[in-house]
Design goal:
Blueprint lengths: L22 E5 L2 E6 L8 E6 L8 H12 L3 E5 L17 H5 L4 H19 L3 E7 L1 H12 L4 E5 L6 H5 L5 E8 L5 H14 L3 E10 L2 H4 L5 H21 L3
Parallel strand pairs: 3-4, 3-5, 5-6, 6-7, 7-8
Antiparallel strand pairs: 1-2, 2-4
């Protein structure tokens, strides 16, 4: 595997300040948070696949709003079918039991529905995907399937080496210094695979941060605030370079 499966650290974090400005709408019979830019480019959009806290988590909504502020129409669907995990669940929460209800077989058809909707109904010509933790796997799988054109993921989980070997578009990764799901050995394995694949890639390692920093990090800590903000800028610059034509 290029990263380990999700674990308890995927549910721990801090709620960020701010008021989301996007709207909750029903798309493909699925509740979806949509952030629209003030001057949209109808040819490009981002499909944001959240971590296990889900699309109603304000931190994730604020990130979607930030992508919109940078000119990207952003859709973030409920990929957990109304069953996300609450932030900071107790240590004895049955995470393995929960993840069994959110397999590729259940999740991927929904992701593909949204790819099709954005391509055919919205009319998007160039589609990017963003995935945090749980969502990273589906960014990679859609890059392999040519469902999306460009991908970005922060502290990814559950990605198989064979999935990564199949990507057919540029991929950017934001990694945490301390991350037992995407530790140094998996990061190095990922680097080796991406070198062989030959697609444009980027792996940025942020010191002083842990798994989840790009969505749930404690912004009162200087290193975390810096890492969270820079990881977002990393994504925007990646899409500005490879998604826009």
């Amino acid at each position: 595997m290029a990263s380990h499966p999700p674990a308890q650290c995927c549910t721990i974090g801090v709620k960020h300040e701010g008021t989301p400005t996007g709207k909750m709408e029903t798309v493909e019979e699925t509740e979806t948070y949509i952030a629209r830019p003030s001057s949209p480019d109808p040819s490009v959009a981002i499909l944001l696949i959240p971590d296990v806290i889900g699309h109603r988590f304000e931190n994730a909504q604020l990130i979607a709003d930030q992508f919109a502020a940078n000119g990207y129409l952003t859709y973030m669907p409920d990929v957990f079918f109304g069953d996300p995990i609450s932030l900071n669940r107790p240590a004895d929460f049955d995470f393995p039991g929960w993840i069994k209800n959110h397999t590729v077989e259940r999740t991927e058809p929904l992701i593909k529905k949204f790819v099709k909707h954005l391509r055919e109904t919205v009319g998007v010509k160039r589609l990017g995907a963003v995935g945090y933790c749980f969502g990273g796997k589906y960014v990679v799988r859609e890059l392999a399937a040519k469902g999306v054109d460009v991908g970005y993921t922060a502290h990814p989980s559950f990605i198989d080496a064979e999935e990564l070997k199949g990507i057919k578009g540029p991929l950017s990764i934001a990694a945490a210094e301390t991350d037992r799901i995407f530790p140094a050995d998996k990061r190095h394995e990922t680097e080796a695979i991406l070198q062989e694949v030959g697609q444009p890639y980027q792996i940025n390692l942020y010191s002083g941060v842990e798994h989840g920093f790009a969505v749930r990090g404690d912004m009162q800590k200087k290193e975390v605030k810096f890492g969270k903000e820079q990881a977002f800028y990393q994504a925007v610059q990646w899409f500005d370079t490879y998604l826009k034509e």
